[in-house]
Amino acid sequence: VPHLLSHIVDALGGELRGSRDFEVARLASLEHAGQGDLSFCSAKQPTLALRQSRAGCLVLSAENYAAIAPNLPARAFVLVSDPYLYFARLTQWWKRVQGVAANEPLIHPTAFIHPSAHLAADVRIGPFVYVGPHVEVEAGAFLGPHSVIEEGVKIGEGTRLMSRVTIYASCQLGHSGLLHSGVVVGADGFGFAKNGDEGWEKIEQLGGVRIGHAVEIGANTCIDRGTLDDTVISDGVKLDNLIQIGHNVYIGPHTALAACVGVAGSAHIGAYCTVGGAANIFGHLRIADHVHIAGTSVVTRSILKAGHYGGFFPLGEKAEWEKNAAVVRQLYRLRERVKRLESPPLTSAIQK
Amino acid sequence: VPHLLSHIVDALGGELRGSRDFEVARLASLEHAGQGDLSFCSAKQPTLALRQSRAGCLVLSAENYAAIAPNLPARAFVLVSDPYLYFARLTQWWKRVQGVAANEPLIHPTAFIHPSAHLAADVRIGPFVYVGPHVEVEAGAFLGPHSVIEEGVKIGEGTRLMSRVTIYASCQLGHSGLLHSGVVVGADGFGFAKNGDEGWEKIEQLGGVRIGHAVEIGANTCIDRGTLDDTVISDGVKLDNLIQIGHNVYIGPHTALAACVGVAGSAHIGAYCTVGGAANIFGHLRIADHVHIAGTSVVTRSILKAGHYGGFFPLGEKAEWEKNAAVVRQLYRLRERVKRLESPPLTSAIQK
Amino acid sequence: VPHLLSHIVDALGGELRGSRDFEVARLASLEHAGQGDLSFCSAKQPTLALRQSRAGCLVLSAENYAAIAPNLPARAFVLVSDPYLYFARLTQWWKRVQGVAANEPLIHPTAFIHPSAHLAADVRIGPFVYVGPHVEVEAGAFLGPHSVIEEGVKIGEGTRLMSRVTIYASCQLGHSGLLHSGVVVGADGFGFAKNGDEGWEKIEQLGGVRIGHAVEIGANTCIDRGTLDDTVISDGVKLDNLIQIGHNVYIGPHTALAACVGVAGSAHIGAYCTVGGAANIFGHLRIADHVHIAGTSVVTRSILKAGHYGGFFPLGEKAEWEKNAAVVRQLYRLRERVKRLESPPLTSAIQK
């Protein structure tokens, strides 16, 4: 179903130029947008993609509008100060108005709810969900198909579990959360004491997991429960897919971790950090606020100063990098050789 | 149940030498095969393992047969041009004929099928499967136990979901696919716009996932839906376990990714590529056809030329590699020192 | 519910000093323990955290007790030879005595058990579990909510599947195991033969997975079935979350792998090894007993000698490490330049 552009601008703001009765068929990228579609450009200067776009409607800055609008086939424009943020809100608006009127039952007849669980009146529970004893779920929450909510869990207002999510006993989720399929919250941290040749003696993990408000967690990501205290994920944290968060970890507000990141036990990560995909953070260290780690980097020590950090072996053609790797294997000897060259032995100086 | 070797050769071809009424008890590796078992050798020359094998039956090349057969205890041989490919087909034949006559019900009574779903007549649905509204499933498909198929999903002919698979709304799977347990197709891509100190504003992911024919996806692998357009996995692609495919990624036909690989958003990978385990591919870059990436490598730029690429820090004994890593930390200074040594300062030349 | 310290010492041993009727409210870390809590110190010398701890009760070595006890506010002490091991056992005791009297039904009415399955009398089966044909489950085992147990699986005494675990057909688990949510045991190994431009021909994986006794497996970890023989996980092995174990891998007794480790096919890892988080082990190689691999390292060759190994690119500030990486890209040339400096060309010597 298309939507009137004027309705969008009424809801989200922005300055409309051109056809007010433009009907938006789709939101699309600059490359793929056609004459019925809306797209956006967040670059400071007009990009090639913008110049070539056949989008019927464009969200852009007043500067880009002034620079290029007359040369574009678009029939409507929305001028805003931050096109990317505007576009984010537009996707939310779009999803909401497109939303199918869910005539599914509020609590699916195949779900099993323990009689001691307390669910707010309008909680929706999908097929085959298991809700254990003493669970508390607040208004507007959604527990997707095949989720497992163990004893004593608390789930805040409007938080959604998409499907096949497990929340272990005694963990807490704040309001407005979104947990994707396969997420596991509260499995045991990896804790064992060595018992000589007998192997490993398990340290039972007696803490829980506390997740703040407006936290999003990607598919198949795992957050372990704490050993004694809780593992803590603060408000506004965004975790991508297949991330591992070890026991006793603390992640500060509004920090975002891309997919496949590993955070070892008891690491303390500050607020407003970003960690690129597949980076790994060792245990028991401290990362300050506003630290940005490049993808695939390895953090082995605390980072106490805000800034951008990274480190990974550069890619090369096979023959090249194997030769380089061979040098790395003896790199400290190369440095010694350079040192010797810099300070020629006394005898040789005398001989001269 | 053992199988007559002649039946195998009738079904799969190859030139039988020796005992036609040989009964194959097991398929086994050269090392473990006994006198009732069939094994194979795909090496160009006879290997030590072949020379020492006690297999009763061997699949090998005519060259290896000529070189070594009289010295082997095997009573039967199958001569083929590509023993490895022949063996692959034999495993398929073996599994098929061993296949238990599934006297399970076609649609398990514990499954929940939405009344608006359309299933072909001979689709098999396992226990506790949830099939949402407007889902379409073609002939011969199998939805394993505990799978979750959301609204509007299409599943092609003969595609099998082993168990505990989630397919989010509006995604499509081609025919002859195989998805292993825990796979998540179509969770939200990781997209947020910064909203100053307020944190992150979600970009709803409005695209889907289109998966081609004969695609295999390993356990707990995640493929995110596109932001506006679809994420695309082409025909014949093979994905191992615990792989992350970000939003808007395109993977070309017959490309294979080993376990734990991460592909960031909007990467475009060509056809007939291979990516080794735990390699990571950054977002928004382009990889040509026939590119082969070594395991654990990091691809940060486009690769426009077919070939073999790699790069990772070499392993060493703890004391050694720590010394080497210390040099890496100041490597560009070492280069400067070498440069200075190469061009001695003018003054010093004059002093000479 | 608090517990009398004397009960703890009666059950687990140790020499009690101070208040025998001390009631332990919580087990807590040195930092967070209050006057009603029990904590421990496993360091050889008194640490700062111990000196500052307000714990009411402390488990420590006789040496540390002698050195510092009078200066601490604790009212009770337990003297033991290995405080960390003692603490591990205490967490187990604590969890056991806190254990809710499970008045849940032994076999949940929503579970589906195939009539040909054989369950010991006191096996507990959670909600929505599917138990396939010919499955055998021994005494005291627990199959958590939403688990999928395929045909012919065997599960040993007291082994617990927490929830949403899949065990593929014909795999075996020993006794006293613990499998966390999302674990997949026995999915197909990644095996294909190249069929020219046609793409990949599947090699059916006909082996199984054999898991020993007292094995713990973390959330969303995957262990693939063998191609012909079995993948083997020996007694006492501990696997953390999101680990990938390829087909035909062997892991020796009491080896522990931290989260996100990848082990490629046919690798053979010895006993009493430890592998740090996100390390990767290539296929078809051999690792001796008592080998310890640092997190994020890449093992590309066999390691035949016990010891500590590692290797990863050091982290740096963005500008620094990019300069270093640029040198790495041409490192073998730098070595050549050093070589030339070391042996000046003959002609130049003559010219002198």
Rg from alpha-carbon coordinates of chain A: 27 Å
What global shape of chain A is seen? flat
Q: Which spans of chain A of ≥5 residues are poorly predicted at pLDDT below 50?
A: 348-352
In what range is the share of β-strand residues of chain A? Answer: 25-35%
Lateral strand order in the biggest sheet of chain A = 7-10-13-16-19-24-27-30-33-36
Structural class of chain A: alpha/beta
Helix fraction bin of chain A: 10-25%
Distance between the termini of chain A: 90 Å
- Largest sheet of chain A, described in full? 10 strands, parallel
Compact description:
The structure is a homotrimer. By secondary structure, chain A is of the alpha/beta class. In chain A, the strands form six sheets. Chain A has a ten-stranded parallel beta sheet, with no helix packed on it. In chain A, strands 9-12-15-18-23-26-29-32-35-37 form a ten-stranded parallel beta sheet, with no helix packed on it.
Keywords:
10-stranded parallel β-sheet; flat; homotrimer; alpha/beta; disordered C terminus; 352 residues
Describe this structure in words.
The structure is a homotrimer of 352-residue chains. A ten-stranded parallel β-sheet of chain A has the order 7-10-13-16-19-24-27-30-33-36, with no helix packed on it. The first copy, chain A, has a ten-stranded parallel β-sheet with strand order 9-12-15-18-23-26-29-32-35-37, with no helix packed on it. In chain A, strands 8-11-14-17-22-25-28-31-34 form a nine-stranded parallel β-sheet, with no helix packed on it. The longest helix of chain A has 16 residues, at 83-98. In chain A, strand 4, helix 2 and strand 5 (57-60) form a beta-alpha-beta unit. The first copy, chain A, starts with a strand and ends with a helix. Residues 348-352 of chain A have low confidence and may be disordered. In chain A, 54% of the residues are buried. The first copy, chain A, is built from seven helices and 38 strands. Chain A has 352 residues and is α/β, with parallel strands linked by helices. Helices cover 18% and strands 26% of the residues of chain A. Chains in contact: A-B, A-C, B-C. At the B-C interface, helix 4, strand 38, helix 5 and helix 6 of B face strand 20, strand 21, strand 36, strand 37 and helix 5 of C. Strand 38 (316-317) of chain B pairs antiparallel with strand 37 of chain C.
